[in-house]
Design brief:
Layout lengths: L6 E9 L2 E10 L4 E6 L7 H12 L3 E11 L6 E3 L1 H20 L9 H5 L5 E3 L7 H72 L5 H15 L2 H18 L6 H21 L3 H21 L4
Parallel strand pairs: 3-4
Antiparallel strand pairs: 1-2, 2-4, 5-6
Length: 296
Amino acid sequence: MIKSMTGFASGKGALGPHSWSWELRSVNGKGLDMRLRVPDWLTGLEAALRSDLSGAVGRGNVTLSLRVTREESATELQLNASAMQAALAALAQTETMAAAQGLALTPSRASDLLGLKGMMDAGNEDDDPAPLVAQLRTEFKGLLADFLTMRQTEGQALADILNAQLDQIATLTDQAAALAEQRRDEMAQNLRDNLARVLDNAQGADPDRVAQELALIAVKADITEEIDRLAAHVTTARALLAQDGPVGRKLDFLTQEFNREANTLCSKSQNAELTSVGLELKAVIDQMREQVQNVE
């Protein structure tokens, strides 16, 4: 079953002090163009998400945004023991040197030491992004599944529209064939009349050559091949709509072929009713081509 290139999914999650929000969306495009906005410090995450997306999506302009925030109030500070030892040793040495000079220093307070740069560290458990990356990769699978479900749902709606348009094309093709059959006797009689008129008014004209020219005109006005090709294109389009995988480019090419046959039919019609059917065909084909632009 075909898929639409239009899709959207969003989600939220949290792990420890971190929380995040996702947005995954896509619109139609000639090929597959992926744009990911993922924090750089989440090592390896962007490459993994890009791989998951490219394996699931064949065509479209896809944008993935991930925003990660940290709740600072939840951070547990820990004393940097080595830094404290160094500070105390330096303080003792300073007091000894001051006493040797007969100087009295103001007693130091614990808050003075704790306020020194590097004295308090955030816990090491959050320094490693691997657990967060693993959780994000797991949750992305659900986000991607929702995204693909929407594209499939949109694809089903597109398939229904396209099949209905193919029904119209098939009906109009049958009408054109019937009108062509009805005008066959009329065209034959017109050719006989034209042949007689030419022979009566052109002395020395070669009757065989004149007959050949008129027969050539008749062949050029015959739309049997256009009718047959239109019917074949309808069959091919239905088969493509029933396939799995990206078929949008093939359908786009096929609509161009549909349009070419409809144009030729109109140019050969020489009949008001047949021309009207040809114009209706062109209108439906144009509508179909607009819908095909959204097929993956």
